[in-house]
Amino acid sequence: MSDPDPQGALAEVRRRRAQVLDEGSAPWPRRFVAALVAACVTIGAARDADMNWFVPWVVVLLVLGSQLRGVQLPRTPRSRRWALACGAALIGSAWSGFVVMHLARTAAWPLPGTLGGVIASLGVVFVVRPLQARAARGLRG
Amino acid sequence: MTRPLDDFLHTPARLSVMSLLAPAEWVTFAFLRDSIGTSDSALSKQLSALESAGYVEVRKDRGATRSTSARLTPVGRSAFDAYLDDLEELVARARGTASPSGAATRPVAGDA
Fold first, then answer.
1. Does ipTM come in above 0.90?
2. In terms of DSSP H, where are the helices of A25-128?
3. In this structure, is residue B58 part of a structural domain?
4. Min distance A96 CA to chain B CA atoms (Å)
5. Residue pLDDT, tens place only, A12-55
6. Is the CB of B108 less than 8 angstroms away from the CB of A12?
7. Which domain range does residue B84 map to?
8. How far is A57 from chain B (nearest CA, A)?
9. SS3 content of chain B, % helix, strand, coil (to 5)
């Protein structure tokens, strides 16, 4: 292959830079959000079915799935703030799921764990995902 | 008088790898391979050459994901920045817009 001309080389650098920024600052793909929702409901259903041993496996798979991004951009103060908010929202969603599960169990409703999982998954879709998208956008500086 | 371009970096494959690594903290081997559209062995060869030159650090994750990632070292970053400065100066000279000191403006700046 021949060496690129300077103008072409600069264009290549710009194109590659845009490619990396697009990949590194993309929000969670729909498939990953769908997997998170499925995991929340599965964890709740596993508790209803007394399959608590299944819960850590789902968590491990989720953690592995979240690390599949091809590019890791350097954190900016803005992205760090939104990432903290996103983490807090994720914990809040899980907590609200547990609260609903215990309330449903106290009220003797059927499938309290699954109900809690559904509530947690709503938190993921409507609160965590938008915050994660902002944190990812913040990586562009 | 302009410096000659860094011949080691001024090849299409290495230029692509360095350009992909420059804005990022870490980039996975799979992303590099798919973006450049090359084979595993060809990319490994380029990464080894860049690693031997001290421009790139390669990390092999032994965890469950078993992924390989790469990033620029400080030496690699400054060599790439210097290479970009030289490229821009060459282009500016060709356009007749270079400053008397020889320093061209850097539209690609922000890679550091």
1. no
2. 30-48, 54-66, 77-106, 112-123
3. yes
4. 31
5. 999 999 999 999 898 988 888 898 899 889 989 988 888 877 77
6. no
7. 12-93
8. 13
9. 45, 10, 40
